[in-house]
């Protein structure tokens, strides 16, 4: 089975929302930012993964990173995230943030660093998706996209 990773289109909205909701994440606001989502699609045109990069000025917030478990393996997960990072860099974003309750080691492997509560940037804290942040449960992580190639 091969997969295609592409920019989401209008016809993808409902499948993306279902996939995100099934993963226990909020699908709120996806319809407003659909053009900032990527999808993983099978040969049969089934959407089995998605990730959004919500713009925050010159920065971005990685959101709704989901791949159906029956299609997930470490290589697909890593490849998909690296494509998402390249996409964010192509959009000329400076920093990419994410909110996560788990997988810290995975994101640290990619170069993300944990941002302590007292250092959370105001524009990130004021973003609609930041409502997912729960002090003591989730972590905010950041990746400097400008130095991404230099770090490798």
TrEMBL record:
Matching Pfam families, A to Z? Acetyltransf_7
EC number(s) reported in the record: 2.3.1.-
InterPro entries cross-referenced by the UniProt entry: Acyl_CoA_acyltransferase, GNAT_dom
Which molecular-function annotations from GO does this UniProt entry contain?
Answer: acyltransferase activity
Q: Could you tell me the superkingdom of the organism this chain comes from? A: Bacteria
Broad EC category: transferase
Which keywords are on file for this protein?
A: Acyltransferase, Transferase
Residues annotated as domain N-acetyltransferase: 3-146
Protein's name according to its UniProt entry: GNAT family N-acetyltransferase
């Amino acid at each position: 089975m091969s997969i295609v990773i592409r920019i989401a289109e209008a016809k993808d909205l409902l499948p993306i929302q279902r996939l995100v909701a099934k993963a226990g994440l909020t699908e709120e606001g996806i319809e407003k930012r659909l053009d900032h989502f990527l999808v993983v699609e099978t040969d049969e045109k089934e959407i089995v993964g998605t990730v959004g990069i919500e713009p925050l000025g010159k920065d971005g917030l990685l959101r709704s990173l989901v791949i159906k478990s029956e299609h997930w393996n470490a290589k697909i997960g890593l490849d998909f995230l690296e494509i998402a990072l390249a996409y964010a860099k192509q959009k000329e974003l400076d920093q990419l943030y994410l909110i996560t309750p788990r997988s810290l080691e995975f994101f640290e492997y990619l170069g993300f660093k944990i941002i302590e509560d007292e250092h959370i940037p105001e524009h990130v804290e004021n973003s609609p998706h930041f409502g997912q942040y729960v002090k003591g449960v989730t972590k905010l992580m950041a990746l400097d996209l400008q130095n991404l190639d230099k770090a490798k």
